[in-house]
Amino acid sequence: MILHPVPGVVPIRLLIVTDAWAPQVNGVVRTLATVAEELRAGGDIVEVVGPDRFRTMPTPSYPEIRLALFPRRRLTRIVDAFAPDAIHIATEGPLGMAMRAICRKRGWPFTTSFHTRFAEYVHARTRLPPGIAWAWLRRFHNAAAGTYAATASLQAELAERGFRHILPWTRGVDLRLFHPGPATDFTDLPRPIFLYAGRVAVEKNIEAFLALDLPGTKVVVGDGPQRADLQARFPQAHFAGWRVGEALANAYRSADVFVFPSRTDTFGLVLLEAMACGTPVAAYPVMGPKDVVTNPEAGQLHDNLHTACLAALHCSRTTARSHAETYSWAACAAGFRAQLVLRG
Hints:
Elements: E1 13-17, H1 27-41, E2 45-49, E3 56-59, E4 62-68, H2 72-82, E5 86-89, H3 94-106, E6 111-113, H4 118-126, H5 130-142, E7 146-149, H6 152-160, E8 166-168, E9 193-197, H7 206-210, E10 217-221, H8 227-233, E11 238-241, H9 245-253, E12 257-260, H10 269-276, E13 281-283, H11 289-292, E14 299-301, H12 305-312, H13 317-324, H14 329-338
């Protein structure tokens, strides 16, 4: 049974199981937290189960991310105590695998979402052939009643790789927090300001940005396992550390161009946040940017990132904001809810 959020509908008890949760700071966490908040505001009862409820270990090569250790027994108790009407498994980590096993054993339907090009991330760190991870991911998700995918490009790729029951699910942006305004950050740095914001990790391809010969200053907002190495190799760049909330919004609106060098992201929530602040985008024409930055006046996509960066300096900050305004968290949450499947 597909759920449709209409006036007068009976609230549902929704269980979201995710290996990506606070204190992690990334697009997956922001998306799940905001959707849960929107659904609760509409009357649903939403329980999010993350690694914070379990004994954990650091992820190899990425200690900032903690993985739940042998979570199935405790997760089973949590599930039974909550008695969900619908179950969504957001990630393919230990918690996601444990929840999938519980659902399969009990014959419960569930949905999943595909947030991360995990095969490419593993290959970047271990050189493991991506085909092995893709086969495992396909098996994981094809047990679900449906798999949410954020963009048309991702939906097409998953279909080509043999994934079934693919469901569209876009993203939103907080237009109240992320809005245009005066440049109050990085005022002591030479302009123009080219800004990257996000995890500082190998799969984000930040080196491609930092190696560019650009005027002004390159700024990196964020942290992660590659920061020390990049900071040592590119001392001319300004590393500002993590920013959240208003501090992050100030960083976006104080930049002249937001640079997104990743070739592996499935969406890129930061693209919307930057444009909402009026900051145009420079990126490669790959999945994520080509789906999100569809107006050339809001950002420039080019196989040569240097060319994209310089061209983006001439984009319209007003158009960037207007483009971001076409996305909303309310619509994102409604689309998420409408495609959930009742347990019985």
